[in-house]
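Hi V.,

You were right to ask for the full record rather than a summary. Here it is.
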Amino acid sequence: LHWKDVCFSVKVKGGRKDILQNVSGQLQPGKLTAILGPSGSGKTTCLMMLAGFETPTHGEILLDGNIISNIPPHKRGIGMVFQNYALFPHMTVYENLAFPLRVRKVEKDEIDKKVDKALSMVSLSGFETRMPAQLSGGQQQRLCIARAISVKPEVILMDEPCSALDPIATAQIEELIDELKKDHTIIIVTHSMAQAARVSQNTGFFHLGELIEHGSTDKIFKNPENKRTQDYITGRFG
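Predicted structure:
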């Protein structure tokens, strides 16, 4: 996954407001990249554009060398785990997983197999008939991850997957992410530097709509090149 000179702006009173400014980056296959930065720095907007839920006003997004900037989300080969779960409250666990597969015209027998496999991977086998409201926050997030992996994506994007979870549920999700990164390319947006240090191999830092530093997590945390990155990591960021 590669994005080049991506800009995103929105209309505001009196003109337009830049959310992302000429952001370029590349995701290494088989790696987990954490995206850090203060609130409003453009992290989630960047993730939404890569997933296809926002359209860049300038620049290109490529997957395996093919431009996907104007391709709808369900045709990109990208799985998305939303911060607010985005589950259908009126659908069962099975139906929530089956829906994106039906959109992709998958046959019923194959849907059943994919749902069973995805639920097994996130330790939710036997929960097929439950409604989202009957699940804990950690179980709902595992269901969201199951939905993302059920379509066999080339890339998985996760937006603050543990922000609403208690420490025990967070540890379970991080353990699951650690397992997934063995076979998937993943980007995780997080406010938690500790989480980024625990789960990621690479880290990018956003500030005011720009990706100002990107490299190995070890290097970013121990020897950041950018002063703003350094201030953020040491707690002096203002």
